[in-house]
Amino acid sequence: MSRMGDVLAGFHAAWEFESDSVLIRYERGLRTPRLFQALGERRVPLEAISGVTLAPGKRGTVVLRAELRAGADPLLEAAAGQLKEGCDPYRLVLPAEKETLAEYYADELKSLLSDGSAPADGFLVSAPEAPRQFKAYDAKASFDGKTVAFRWFWTGASSEKWKAGDQSFPVAELAGVEWRSPEFFEGHLRLVRRNGDAQPAQPDQDPAAVVFGLGYGPVHESLPFAAAVLQAVRSSGPAAAVSAGAPRRDPADIAERIRHLGELHQAGLVTDEEFSVKKAELLAEL
């Protein structure tokens, strides 16, 4: 950048441009998305950025956005495209009168970027630090940097989880993390075991998973948790996977879940869009 330490302040965040990185500081105001408040700040090396865009926003604003290389940020890897636009940590919303200034910084950033189209070899942005914890619907999840622990709630945990007892998972035994946003149908956090043993298809039956709902497992708590675990998994050994999808379900189970989803839709508890998206997801698992 032309001057180290230049700052571009927008709504809910400010970007400080340095010689080799962009430091994003998030506000802690009442209107600031809770995920931003939980993150506090993020230092993004220029080598992690693949591109920069500037586009018109809503209601007299412009949006400056940094596009990160695939695999550069454990938070985005864990989110797997599920973050809503307003919670994108790499969007800086500015009043329209700052468009010229934003365009200047966008051009400056672009001039410093190398070819970032290839996926990153490893995480370039640090995950939120451990220790971390949050309350899911059926358990309290905690992570001390080396071990993930689930302590079941008798009011929410299934009988299968109670029979299995409280769980502890050393990072070295994990191959990945699967996070499904609590803002969508069937939100959960599932730990994928390195030994490759089959895991129950339904998270509420899997002792290596906790489920969200009714205000439990909010994005600003469960996603930074997932990102912290994911970074630890990646660092634990060369064989560690970044993430893993859910195991395939039995066709009869898929049919039952779609039937249940249809009942929720007819009852008005699931919108048309949510019904269509989730139905497509279930069919894709066949």
From TrEMBL:
Record's protein name: DUF4429 domain-containing protein
Domain DUF4429 as annotated: residue spans: 15-109, 141-229
Organism: Streptomyces cylindrosporus
One Pfam family per UniProt: DUF4429
Matching InterPro entries: DUF4429 (IPR027860), SHOCT (IPR018649)
Signal peptide: none
Top-rank taxon, per record: Bacteria
Record-annotated SHOCT domain positions: 256-283
